[in-house]
């Protein structure tokens, strides 16, 4: 038998509840949080998630550059349909990423090391979501929607 936080007793290899967290002991005696939040926390702290996030930021920068180049060559404020689709896909990914981090860290999201970047990411995502909602509500054709960079420039 080993004792856990809160003085509860657990036995090796068995699953039990510890407060609101569901934990399980693994072979080496370590406690692992197997709740949905615990799994999300392990995922957002994983090397693979960090690499994916960096790759998505890089690809989004490439997409923004391609969209800007295309719009400049066409002398238009309307992005190409394919580039607009990619813009929405990136918005979907970044929204998922920020809300997954919020779910995993909860209020620590606003107090942990790097909290300013977390807030910056959250503000960017919320602003782009608001922009998309406003554009969808005032435009009949979604292809006519302005890009986020054009909206920010006009503000």
Spell out the blueprint of helices and strands.
Elements: E1 2-3, E2 9-10, E3 15-18, E4 21-25, E5 31-33, H1 36-44, H2 47-74, H3 81-105, H4 115-138, H5 148-154
Helix pairs in contact: 1-3, 2-3, 3-4
Please explain how this structure is put together.
By secondary structure, the chain is mainly alpha-helical. Helices cover 60% and strands 10% of the residues. The chain contains 5 helices and 5 strands, in the order βββββααααα. It has helices at residues 36-44, 47-74, 81-105, 115-138, 148-154; strands at residues 2-3, 9-10, 15-18, 21-25, 31-33. The strands form 2 sheets. It has a 3-stranded antiparallel β-sheet with strand order 3-4-5. Strands 1-2 form a two-stranded antiparallel sheet. It is elongated and about 65 Å long.
Descriptors for this entry?
disordered N terminus, 155 residues, 5 strands, three-stranded antiparallel sheet, 60% helix, mainly alpha
Bin the strand percentage.
5-15%
pLDDT < 50 runs, ≥5 residues: 1-19
What share of residues is helical? 55-70%
Average per-residue pLDDT, rounded, comes to 79
Shape: elongated
Structural class: mainly alpha
Q: State the end-to-end distance.
A: 63 Å
Order of helix and strand elements from N to C terminus: EEEEEHHHHH
Sheet with most strands: 3 strands, antiparallel
Tally of contiguous helical segments = 5
In the sheet with the most strands, the strands line up as 3-4-5
* Number of distinct beta strands: 5
Radius of gyration: 22 Å
């Amino acid at each position: 038998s080993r004792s856990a936080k809160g003085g509860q007793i657990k036995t090796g290899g068995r699953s039990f509840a510890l407060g609101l967290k569901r934990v399980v002991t693994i072979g080496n005696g370590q406690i692992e949080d197997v709740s949905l939040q615990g799994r999300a926390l392990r995922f957002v702290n994983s090397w693979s998630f960090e690499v994916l996030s960096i790759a998505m930021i890089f690809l989004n920068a490439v997409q923004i550059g391609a969209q800007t180049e295309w719009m400049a060559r066409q002398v238009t404020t309307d992005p190409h349909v394919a580039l607009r689709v990619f813009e929405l896909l990136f918005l979907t990914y970044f929204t998922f990423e920020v809300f997954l981090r919020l779910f995993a860290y909860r209020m620590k999201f606003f107090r942990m090391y790097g909290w300013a970047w977390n807030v910056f990411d959250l503000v960017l995502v919320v602003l782009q979501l608001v922009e998309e909602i406003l554009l969808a509500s005032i435009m009949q054709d979604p292809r006519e929607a302005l890009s986020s960079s054009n909206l920010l420039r006009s503000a």
